[in-house]
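debug: dumping io for the single-chain case to check the tokenizer round-trip. Nothing else runs in this session.
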Amino acid sequence: MTASGSSPVPPASDSPDSIRLGATLVEPLPLPFYLLVEPMVSGKQVLDLAAAVGGPGPECLRRAGAAEVISCVLTGPSLPAPDAGVDIVLCGLPVIRSDADRGVWMAEIRRVLRPGGFCVLRLAAAALRDHAQAGAGLRTACMDLLLVYFATVDIVEETQFGGVSFLVPGTDDLAVNESLTRLTGASGHLVALCTDCAERPWNLGESLLVPTDAGAASEAGAAGVSAGELAAWQGEVARLEARCAELSREHEDAREGAMTLQDRADRLERTVAVLRRDVERFLRQISDDAAARELLALERDDLRRNLALATQQAADASREVERRQVALRTLEKEVVRLRAARGGAGRPNGKT
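debug: decoded output
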């Protein structure tokens, strides 16, 4: 429930010191309250008006990134912070039945808040019932009270949440069985986020679930959960845990199978790489062999041309030899004839 309105000057008491803030101790803030505020404190100065100093709440805020967390127990008439000294004020507002008393509280909270800061108040539902008009709910009563002092107010209602949760085997995740959850009991407290700004410096999601301690079986019985329902829930938890364990084993088997397949894929990839190198080498060799065969073919054609030329030249030489042999025989015959002719001419014609 949200509302915005004007921010008039809060009612003042008759005397600043007439009402001691510490006279009524603030209520302790439970851990879920800090978990609700945790996403809003990054880089902020936080004033924690706790019932006691220490506890896990302020440490949660520091781990969430708060610049400083000032935890204190009220013992005097004013808050232990300078004017406009903090960004966020956390307070478990006690039961305040006097308007003047309430005015001092709100004035002090507004005094220490910086411009743009806000306070987160936890108010007991019992303290609001006296202010709820006929037909109006606690949220409306809370809104009417706070809009007197702040321009913008958001109300978050604390509702007891009963359900079943379990750790998923093999993980750090916390699972909640939503089908078995139920909302039980009336609101014991309301949380109000208040600021003087027109725009909200906080951000609340549509669905907000802050973990709380569900308690033991006795609290479940007090919340209206029967023993049969509790047994059914426990049986469902056992079934879901068994199913989660089975899924975890299947996940492990699948992971091992994936690793085995990856190893096989790596080996096949290495084999393919070797085969690829061999193929490339064979292709280069085939290419070299083809080039060598082409060169041999060229040399063979050249030799054939040379052989044909030599054969032609040998044939020409053979014909020339035959021609010269014919000419030689002709010359020999001519020599014989000439010799014969010369011999006949040199002999005398008469007898001696």
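debug: round-trip ok. The two ends are 183 Å apart (CA to CA).
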